[in-house]
Amino acid sequence: MAVAGCGPAGLAAALLLARDGHRVTIVERFAAPAPIGSGLMIQPTGLAVLRSLGLDGALIARSARIDRLSGQAGGRTVLDVAYATLGQAGLCGFGVHRATLFSVLHDAVTAAGIPVETGRTIAGSEPVAAGGRRLVFADGTRSAPFDLIVDALGTRTPLAPPCGRALHYGALWANLDAVPGFAGDALEQRYRRASMMAGVLPIGRPPGAAADQVAFFWSIRADRVAAWRQAGLAAWRDEVQALWPATAPLLEQIVDPDCLTFARYAHRTLSRPAGAAMIHIGDAWHSASPQLGQGANMALLDAYALAKGLREADGVAAGLAAAVALRRRHVRLYQALTALFTPVYQSDSRTLPFVRDRLVGPLSGTWPANRIQAAMVSGLIGSPLRPLALA
Ligand SMILES: Cc1cc2nc3c(=O)[nH]c(=O)nc-3n(C[C@H](O)[C@H](O)[C@H](O)COP(=O)(O)OP(=O)(O)OC[C@H]3O[C@@H](n4cnc5c(N)ncnc54)[C@H](O)[C@@H]3O)c2cc1C
Protein backbone atom coordinates (compact mmCIF):
# COMPACT_ATOMS: atom_id res chain seq x y z
CA MET A 1 0.00 0.00 0.00
CA ALA A 2 1.17 3.56 -0.63
CA VAL A 3 0.38 6.36 1.78
CA ALA A 4 0.73 9.67 -0.06
CA GLY A 5 1.65 12.48 2.33
CA CYS A 6 3.57 12.75 5.55
CA GLY A 7 1.13 14.89 7.56
CA PRO A 8 -0.84 13.69 10.62
CA ALA A 9 -3.28 11.67 8.47
CA GLY A 10 -0.56 9.93 6.43
CA LEU A 11 1.75 9.17 9.35
CA ALA A 12 -1.07 7.81 11.54
CA ALA A 13 -2.53 5.75 8.67
CA ALA A 14 0.88 4.25 7.89
CA LEU A 15 1.41 3.29 11.54
CA LEU A 16 -2.05 1.76 11.95
CA LEU A 17 -1.89 -0.15 8.65
CA ALA A 18 1.62 -1.45 9.34
CA ARG A 19 0.49 -2.57 12.79
CA ASP A 20 -2.20 -4.67 11.06
CA GLY A 21 0.46 -6.36 8.94
CA HIS A 22 0.11 -4.37 5.68
CA ARG A 23 3.28 -3.53 3.76
CA VAL A 24 3.25 0.28 3.61
CA THR A 25 5.40 2.90 1.87
CA ILE A 26 4.97 6.63 2.57
CA VAL A 27 5.61 9.04 -0.33
CA GLU A 28 6.26 12.73 0.40
CA ARG A 29 7.38 15.74 -1.65
CA PHE A 30 9.70 17.20 1.00
CA ALA A 31 13.35 16.21 0.80
CA ALA A 32 13.32 15.91 4.59
CA PRO A 33 9.85 15.38 6.03
CA ALA A 34 8.91 18.45 8.08
CA PRO A 35 5.78 20.00 9.50
CA ILE A 36 4.42 23.29 8.17
CA GLY A 37 2.72 25.89 10.32
CA SER A 38 2.32 26.86 13.90
CA GLY A 39 0.17 25.54 16.73
CA LEU A 40 -2.90 23.39 16.81
CA MET A 41 -5.15 21.78 19.37
CA ILE A 42 -5.39 18.05 19.93
CA GLN A 43 -8.86 17.26 21.17
CA PRO A 44 -10.04 14.18 23.11
CA THR A 45 -10.93 12.62 19.72
CA GLY A 46 -7.41 12.91 18.29
CA LEU A 47 -5.91 11.90 21.62
CA ALA A 48 -7.95 8.68 21.61
CA VAL A 49 -6.29 7.69 18.31
CA LEU A 50 -2.83 8.60 19.62
CA ARG A 51 -3.57 6.54 22.74
CA SER A 52 -4.42 3.53 20.57
CA LEU A 53 -0.95 3.91 19.05
CA GLY A 54 0.70 4.28 22.48
CA LEU A 55 1.76 7.83 21.58
CA ASP A 56 -0.47 9.94 23.85
CA GLY A 57 2.12 10.15 26.65
CA ALA A 58 4.85 11.42 24.31
CA LEU A 59 2.54 14.12 22.97
CA ILE A 60 1.20 15.20 26.36
CA ALA A 61 4.73 15.51 27.78
CA ARG A 62 5.59 18.18 25.17
CA SER A 63 2.29 20.05 24.92
CA ALA A 64 0.20 22.43 27.04
CA ARG A 65 -2.97 21.19 28.72
CA ILE A 66 -5.91 23.39 27.69
CA ASP A 67 -8.93 23.47 30.00
CA ARG A 68 -10.76 26.51 28.63
CA LEU A 69 -11.39 28.62 25.55
CA SER A 70 -12.22 32.23 26.23
CA GLY A 71 -13.00 35.18 24.01
CA GLN A 72 -13.68 38.84 24.71
CA ALA A 73 -15.03 41.66 22.57
CA GLY A 74 -14.97 45.21 23.88
CA GLY A 75 -14.48 44.03 27.46
CA ARG A 76 -17.44 41.59 27.27
CA THR A 77 -16.93 37.84 27.59
CA VAL A 78 -18.47 36.39 24.45
CA LEU A 79 -16.89 32.92 24.52
CA ASP A 80 -16.42 30.88 27.69
CA VAL A 81 -15.97 27.17 27.10
CA ALA A 82 -14.65 24.80 29.76
CA TYR A 83 -14.08 21.10 29.02
CA ALA A 84 -15.03 20.42 32.68
CA THR A 85 -18.70 21.26 31.95
CA LEU A 86 -18.93 17.88 30.15
CA GLY A 87 -18.41 16.23 33.54
CA GLN A 88 -15.85 13.65 32.35
CA ALA A 89 -12.83 13.41 34.62
CA GLY A 90 -9.63 14.64 32.98
CA LEU A 91 -11.28 15.76 29.72
CA CYS A 92 -9.24 18.55 28.14
CA GLY A 93 -7.48 19.62 24.97
CA PHE A 94 -3.73 19.89 24.34
CA GLY A 95 -2.07 22.83 22.61
CA VAL A 96 0.88 21.61 20.55
CA HIS A 97 3.35 22.91 18.03
CA ARG A 98 2.77 21.15 14.74
CA ALA A 99 6.39 19.94 14.95
CA THR A 100 5.58 18.13 18.19
CA LEU A 101 2.71 16.17 16.67
CA PHE A 102 4.81 15.50 13.60
CA SER A 103 7.86 14.29 15.50
CA VAL A 104 5.83 12.01 17.81
CA LEU A 105 4.25 10.31 14.78
CA HIS A 106 7.37 10.40 12.59
CA ASP A 107 9.60 8.91 15.30
CA ALA A 108 7.10 6.03 15.61
CA VAL A 109 7.12 5.55 11.82
CA THR A 110 10.93 5.39 11.88
CA ALA A 111 10.90 2.96 14.83
CA ALA A 112 8.40 0.74 12.98
CA GLY A 113 10.75 0.63 9.98
CA ILE A 114 8.15 2.05 7.57
CA PRO A 115 9.93 3.33 4.45
CA VAL A 116 9.45 7.02 3.56
CA GLU A 117 10.27 8.01 -0.03
CA THR A 118 11.05 11.72 0.10
CA GLY A 119 11.55 14.32 -2.61
CA ARG A 120 8.72 12.78 -4.66
CA THR A 121 6.08 15.27 -5.81
CA ILE A 122 2.91 13.44 -6.76
CA ALA A 123 0.96 14.79 -9.73
CA GLY A 124 -1.77 12.16 -10.07
CA SER A 125 -2.53 8.46 -10.20
CA GLU A 126 -3.73 5.88 -12.73
CA PRO A 127 -5.51 2.53 -12.40
CA VAL A 128 -3.63 -0.63 -13.30
CA ALA A 129 -5.33 -3.16 -15.61
CA ALA A 130 -4.68 -6.08 -13.25
CA GLY A 131 -6.25 -4.15 -10.38
CA GLY A 132 -4.63 -1.64 -8.06
CA ARG A 133 -3.28 1.81 -8.88
CA ARG A 134 0.02 3.56 -9.43
CA LEU A 135 1.25 7.04 -8.56
CA VAL A 136 2.28 9.48 -11.29
CA PHE A 137 5.01 11.91 -10.26
CA ALA A 138 5.59 15.52 -11.35
CA ASP A 139 8.79 14.46 -13.16
CA GLY A 140 6.73 12.12 -15.37
CA THR A 141 7.85 8.87 -13.73
CA ARG A 142 5.44 6.27 -12.32
CA SER A 143 5.51 4.09 -9.21
CA ALA A 144 5.09 0.34 -9.07
CA PRO A 145 1.42 -0.68 -8.70
CA PHE A 146 -0.15 -0.69 -5.23
CA ASP A 147 -3.26 -2.52 -3.95
CA LEU A 148 -4.32 0.75 -2.38
CA ILE A 149 -3.27 4.38 -2.47
CA VAL A 150 -4.16 6.38 0.64
CA ASP A 151 -4.40 10.02 -0.36
CA ALA A 152 -3.27 12.07 2.66
CA LEU A 153 -1.91 14.96 0.58
CA GLY A 154 -3.91 17.67 2.33
CA THR A 155 -6.36 20.21 1.03
CA ARG A 156 -4.63 20.81 -2.34
CA THR A 157 -4.36 17.14 -3.23
CA PRO A 158 -3.75 16.42 -6.92
CA LEU A 159 -5.30 12.96 -6.45
CA ALA A 160 -8.88 14.26 -6.18
CA PRO A 161 -10.92 16.63 -8.33
CA PRO A 162 -10.93 20.23 -7.05
CA CYS A 163 -13.99 21.20 -5.02
CA GLY A 164 -15.11 23.69 -2.37
CA ARG A 165 -13.97 27.28 -2.04
CA ALA A 166 -11.12 29.30 -0.58
CA LEU A 167 -12.25 31.56 2.27
CA HIS A 168 -11.66 35.32 2.15
CA TYR A 169 -10.06 35.28 5.59
CA GLY A 170 -7.00 33.45 6.85
CA ALA A 171 -4.55 34.26 9.63
CA LEU A 172 -0.96 35.27 10.29
CA TRP A 173 0.69 32.81 12.68
CA ALA A 174 3.87 32.87 14.76
CA ASN A 175 5.43 30.70 17.46
CA LEU A 176 6.66 32.93 20.27
CA ASP A 177 8.20 32.45 23.69
CA ALA A 178 5.51 32.40 26.37
CA VAL A 179 5.30 35.56 28.49
CA PRO A 180 3.39 36.36 31.71
CA GLY A 181 -0.09 37.86 31.40
CA PHE A 182 -1.80 34.96 29.64
CA ALA A 183 -3.58 31.93 31.06
CA GLY A 184 -1.33 28.87 30.78
CA ASP A 185 -4.33 26.56 30.39
CA ALA A 186 -6.55 28.47 27.95
CA LEU A 187 -6.88 29.44 24.32
CA GLU A 188 -7.60 33.17 24.62
CA GLN A 189 -9.01 35.37 21.87
CA ARG A 190 -9.94 39.03 21.47
CA TYR A 191 -12.34 40.26 18.79
CA ARG A 192 -13.57 43.49 17.29
CA ARG A 193 -16.62 42.71 15.19
CA ALA A 194 -15.73 39.63 13.08
CA SER A 195 -13.11 41.42 11.01
CA MET A 196 -10.48 41.64 13.75
CA MET A 197 -9.31 38.74 15.90
CA ALA A 198 -6.14 37.93 17.83
CA GLY A 199 -5.49 34.67 19.64
CA VAL A 200 -2.89 33.15 21.94
CA LEU A 201 -2.65 29.37 22.37
CA PRO A 202 -0.09 27.78 24.74
CA ILE A 203 1.73 25.00 22.85
CA GLY A 204 4.18 23.61 25.40
CA ARG A 205 7.81 23.03 24.49
CA PRO A 206 8.34 22.07 20.84
CA PRO A 207 11.36 20.01 19.75
CA GLY A 208 14.55 22.07 20.02
CA ALA A 209 12.93 24.93 21.99
CA ALA A 210 14.54 26.06 25.25
CA ALA A 211 11.35 27.52 26.72
CA ASP A 212 7.59 27.06 26.62
CA GLN A 213 5.95 28.67 23.62
CA VAL A 214 2.62 30.06 22.50
CA ALA A 215 1.09 30.24 19.05
CA PHE A 216 -0.03 33.78 18.27
CA PHE A 217 -2.49 34.39 15.45
CA TRP A 218 -4.00 37.46 13.81
CA SER A 219 -6.98 37.15 11.50
CA ILE A 220 -6.56 38.91 8.14
CA ARG A 221 -8.22 38.91 4.74
CA ALA A 222 -6.11 37.26 2.07
CA ASP A 223 -6.41 40.30 -0.21
CA ARG A 224 -4.97 42.57 2.53
CA VAL A 225 -1.79 40.62 3.26
CA ALA A 226 0.31 42.48 0.66
CA ALA A 227 -0.85 45.88 2.01
CA TRP A 228 -0.13 44.72 5.59
CA ARG A 229 3.39 43.76 4.58
CA GLN A 230 3.98 47.11 2.84
CA ALA A 231 2.63 49.17 5.73
CA GLY A 232 5.35 47.85 8.05
CA LEU A 233 5.11 46.35 11.51
CA ALA A 234 4.79 49.53 13.63
CA ALA A 235 1.25 50.41 12.51
CA TRP A 236 0.16 46.80 12.87
CA ARG A 237 1.62 46.48 16.38
CA ASP A 238 -0.35 49.59 17.44
CA GLU A 239 -3.53 48.03 16.07
CA VAL A 240 -2.99 44.72 17.89
CA GLN A 241 -2.04 46.43 21.14
CA ALA A 242 -5.12 48.66 20.97
CA LEU A 243 -7.23 45.50 20.75
CA TRP A 244 -5.24 43.58 23.39
CA PRO A 245 -2.65 45.54 25.40
CA ALA A 246 -1.24 42.40 27.09
CA THR A 247 0.19 41.25 23.73
CA ALA A 248 2.93 43.95 23.85
CA PRO A 249 5.73 41.58 25.04
CA LEU A 250 4.69 39.01 22.44
CA LEU A 251 4.70 41.58 19.64
CA GLU A 252 8.24 42.66 20.62
CA GLN A 253 9.40 39.21 19.51
CA ILE A 254 8.03 39.85 16.01
CA VAL A 255 10.85 41.86 14.48
CA ASP A 256 10.13 41.19 10.82
CA PRO A 257 6.99 40.46 8.78
CA ASP A 258 8.62 37.11 7.91
CA CYS A 259 8.24 36.07 11.57
CA LEU A 260 4.56 35.62 10.68
CA THR A 261 3.29 32.99 8.25
CA PHE A 262 0.03 33.56 6.41
CA ALA A 263 -2.30 30.54 6.28
CA ARG A 264 -5.37 30.75 4.04
CA TYR A 265 -8.27 28.46 4.71
CA ALA A 266 -10.61 26.57 2.38
CA HIS A 267 -13.88 24.77 2.94
CA ARG A 268 -14.13 21.65 0.84
CA THR A 269 -15.58 18.14 1.20
CA LEU A 270 -15.26 15.39 -1.40
CA SER A 271 -18.61 13.76 -2.12
CA ARG A 272 -16.86 10.47 -3.04
CA PRO A 273 -13.93 9.95 -0.65
CA ALA A 274 -13.15 6.44 -1.92
CA GLY A 275 -12.84 4.90 -5.38
CA ALA A 276 -11.00 2.09 -7.14
CA ALA A 277 -7.93 1.29 -5.01
CA MET A 278 -7.93 4.83 -3.58
CA ILE A 279 -9.18 6.56 -0.46
CA HIS A 280 -8.83 10.22 0.51
CA ILE A 281 -8.39 10.93 4.22
CA GLY A 282 -7.75 13.99 6.40
CA ASP A 283 -7.71 17.34 4.64
CA ALA A 284 -7.65 15.53 1.28
CA TRP A 285 -11.23 14.42 2.05
CA HIS A 286 -12.46 17.46 3.99
CA SER A 287 -10.90 20.71 5.06
CA ALA A 288 -12.25 23.75 6.84
CA SER A 289 -11.12 26.87 8.67
CA PRO A 290 -9.50 25.98 12.01
CA GLN A 291 -12.23 27.90 13.87
CA LEU A 292 -13.38 24.75 15.69
CA GLY A 293 -9.84 23.29 15.82
CA GLN A 294 -10.77 19.84 14.47
CA GLY A 295 -8.71 19.26 11.28
CA ALA A 296 -5.78 17.26 12.67
CA ASN A 297 -8.12 15.36 14.97
CA MET A 298 -10.44 14.43 12.10
CA ALA A 299 -7.38 13.33 10.12
CA LEU A 300 -6.38 10.97 12.94
CA LEU A 301 -9.93 9.59 13.20
CA ASP A 302 -10.01 8.99 9.42
CA ALA A 303 -6.75 7.06 9.65
CA TYR A 304 -8.12 4.93 12.46
CA ALA A 305 -11.36 4.24 10.55
CA LEU A 306 -9.38 3.19 7.47
CA ALA A 307 -7.38 0.60 9.39
CA LYS A 308 -10.51 -0.69 11.15
CA GLY A 309 -12.51 -0.85 7.90
CA LEU A 310 -9.79 -2.84 6.12
CA ARG A 311 -9.29 -5.13 9.12
CA GLU A 312 -12.92 -6.08 9.43
CA ALA A 313 -14.10 -6.19 5.80
CA ASP A 314 -13.56 -8.79 3.12
CA GLY A 315 -11.30 -7.16 0.53
CA VAL A 316 -10.03 -3.64 -0.18
CA ALA A 317 -13.19 -2.22 -1.80
CA ALA A 318 -15.42 -3.35 1.08
CA GLY A 319 -12.84 -2.08 3.58
CA LEU A 320 -12.82 1.38 2.00
CA ALA A 321 -16.62 1.52 1.98
CA ALA A 322 -16.67 0.54 5.65
CA ALA A 323 -14.04 3.17 6.51
CA VAL A 324 -16.05 5.92 4.82
CA ALA A 325 -19.25 4.77 6.53
CA LEU A 326 -17.51 4.93 9.93
CA ARG A 327 -16.59 8.57 9.42
CA ARG A 328 -19.09 10.16 7.04
CA ARG A 329 -21.67 11.37 9.58
CA HIS A 330 -19.11 13.06 11.84
CA VAL A 331 -17.35 14.64 8.87
CA ARG A 332 -20.63 16.07 7.51
CA LEU A 333 -21.61 17.37 10.94
CA TYR A 334 -18.35 19.18 11.63
CA GLN A 335 -18.02 20.54 8.10
CA ALA A 336 -21.49 22.06 8.52
CA LEU A 337 -20.78 23.37 12.04
CA THR A 338 -17.50 24.96 10.95
CA ALA A 339 -19.13 26.59 7.92
CA LEU A 340 -21.84 27.93 10.22
CA PHE A 341 -19.53 29.34 12.90
CA THR A 342 -16.59 30.65 10.86
CA PRO A 343 -18.37 33.85 9.68
CA VAL A 344 -19.27 34.64 13.30
CA TYR A 345 -15.54 35.08 13.99
CA GLN A 346 -14.00 35.79 10.59
CA SER A 347 -16.06 37.82 8.12
CA ASP A 348 -17.05 41.36 7.18
CA SER A 349 -20.54 40.86 8.64
CA ARG A 350 -21.72 43.38 11.24
CA THR A 351 -24.90 41.51 12.16
CA LEU A 352 -23.31 38.19 13.14
CA PRO A 353 -20.80 39.65 15.64
CA PHE A 354 -23.55 41.90 17.03
CA VAL A 355 -25.69 38.83 17.77
CA ARG A 356 -22.58 37.01 19.10
CA ASP A 357 -21.65 39.82 21.50
CA ARG A 358 -25.11 40.87 22.71
CA LEU A 359 -27.21 37.66 22.63
CA VAL A 360 -25.17 34.47 22.29
CA GLY A 361 -22.06 35.63 24.22
CA PRO A 362 -23.81 36.23 27.54
CA LEU A 363 -25.28 32.69 27.36
CA SER A 364 -21.88 31.13 26.65
CA GLY A 365 -21.07 30.35 30.28
CA THR A 366 -24.53 29.06 31.21
CA TRP A 367 -26.30 25.71 30.76
CA PRO A 368 -27.05 24.27 28.20
CA ALA A 369 -24.97 26.54 25.90
CA ASN A 370 -21.81 25.79 27.89
CA ARG A 371 -22.22 22.02 27.46
CA ILE A 372 -23.06 22.26 23.76
CA GLN A 373 -20.04 24.47 23.10
CA ALA A 374 -17.71 22.20 25.10
CA ALA A 375 -18.96 19.12 23.23
CA MET A 376 -18.53 20.93 19.90
CA VAL A 377 -14.97 22.08 20.64
CA SER A 378 -13.89 18.70 21.98
CA GLY A 379 -15.03 17.09 18.72
CA LEU A 380 -17.44 14.79 20.53
CA ILE A 381 -20.74 15.91 18.97
CA GLY A 382 -22.04 13.01 16.89
CA SER A 383 -20.18 10.49 19.12
CA PRO A 384 -17.36 9.83 16.64
CA LEU A 385 -15.50 7.44 18.94
CA ARG A 386 -18.40 5.00 19.39
CA PRO A 387 -18.41 3.44 15.88
CA LEU A 388 -14.63 3.21 16.05
CA ALA A 389 -14.83 1.44 19.42
CA LEU A 390 -12.32 3.96 20.79
CA ALA A 391 -12.50 4.88 24.46
C1 LIG B 1 -3.15 27.86 10.62
C2 LIG B 1 -3.84 26.57 10.88
C3 LIG B 1 -4.25 26.26 12.20
C4 LIG B 1 -4.87 25.02 12.44
N1 LIG B 1 -5.27 24.72 13.72
C5 LIG B 1 -5.80 23.49 13.98
C6 LIG B 1 -6.18 23.07 15.30
O1 LIG B 1 -6.08 23.83 16.28
N2 LIG B 1 -6.61 21.80 15.47
C7 LIG B 1 -6.73 20.93 14.43
O2 LIG B 1 -7.11 19.77 14.65
N3 LIG B 1 -6.42 21.29 13.18
C8 LIG B 1 -5.97 22.54 12.92
N4 LIG B 1 -5.65 22.89 11.64
C9 LIG B 1 -5.91 21.95 10.55
C10 LIG B 1 -4.83 20.88 10.48
O3 LIG B 1 -3.56 21.45 10.39
C11 LIG B 1 -5.09 20.01 9.26
O4 LIG B 1 -6.43 19.59 9.29
C12 LIG B 1 -4.17 18.79 9.29
O5 LIG B 1 -2.82 19.18 9.17
C13 LIG B 1 -4.54 17.85 8.13
O6 LIG B 1 -3.62 16.81 8.10
P1 LIG B 1 -3.34 15.99 6.78
O7 LIG B 1 -2.34 14.97 7.13
O8 LIG B 1 -4.65 15.58 6.19
O9 LIG B 1 -2.76 17.04 5.73
P2 LIG B 1 -1.43 17.93 5.81
O10 LIG B 1 -1.08 18.23 7.22
O11 LIG B 1 -1.68 19.08 4.89
O12 LIG B 1 -0.28 17.00 5.20
C14 LIG B 1 -0.18 16.75 3.83
C15 LIG B 1 1.21 16.19 3.52
O13 LIG B 1 1.26 15.86 2.12
C16 LIG B 1 2.41 16.43 1.52
N5 LIG B 1 2.09 16.76 0.13
C17 LIG B 1 1.17 17.66 -0.30
N6 LIG B 1 1.11 17.68 -1.64
C18 LIG B 1 2.01 16.76 -2.08
C19 LIG B 1 2.38 16.29 -3.38
N7 LIG B 1 1.81 16.78 -4.50
N8 LIG B 1 3.31 15.31 -3.46
C20 LIG B 1 3.86 14.76 -2.35
N9 LIG B 1 3.55 15.19 -1.09
C21 LIG B 1 2.63 16.17 -0.96
C22 LIG B 1 2.70 17.67 2.36
O14 LIG B 1 4.06 18.09 2.23
C23 LIG B 1 2.34 17.19 3.76
O15 LIG B 1 3.43 16.53 4.37
C24 LIG B 1 -5.07 24.12 11.37
C25 LIG B 1 -4.67 24.46 10.07
C26 LIG B 1 -4.07 25.67 9.82
C27 LIG B 1 -3.63 26.01 8.40
Tell me about this structure.
This protein has 391 residues and is α/β, with parallel strands linked by helices. The protein has a domain at 2-37 and 101-164 and 268-388: FAD/NAD(P)-binding domain (3-Layer(bba) Sandwich), CATH 3.50.50. The chain has 12 helices and 19 strands. It has helices spanning 8-19, 44-52, 56-61, 98-111, 225-231, 233-243, 248-251, 295-312, 316-345, 351-363, 369-377, 385-388, and strands at 2-4, 25-27, 39-42, 64-66, 68-73, 76-82, 93-97, 116-117, 122-127, 133-137, 149-151, 165-177, 186-192, 196-204, 213-221, 261-269, 274-275, 278-280, 286-287. An 8-stranded mixed β-sheet has the order 6-5-13-14-15-12-16-19. The longest helix is centred in the C-terminal third of the chain and has 30 residues, at 316-345. The two termini are 28 Å apart. It binds flavin-adenine dinucleotide.
CATH class of the domain at 2-37 and 101-164 and 268-388: Alpha Beta
CATH fold call of the domain at 2-37 and 101-164 and 268-388: FAD/NAD(P)-binding domain
Radius of gyration: 21 Å
Bound molecules: flavin-adenine dinucleotide
Shape: globular
The secondary structure category is: alpha/beta
> Uncertain regions: pLDDT < 50 for 5+ in a row?
none
The biggest beta sheet, please?
A: 8 strands, mixed
Average predicted local confidence, pLDDT: 95
Strand order of the largest sheet: 6-5-13-14-15-12-16-19
CATH architecture of the domain at 2-37 and 101-164 and 268-388: 3-Layer(bba) Sandwich
| Separation, N- and C-terminal Cα atoms | 28 Å
In total, the number of strands is: 19
Provide the β-strand percentage band.
Answer: 25-35%
Question: Roughly what percent helix?
Answer: 25-40%
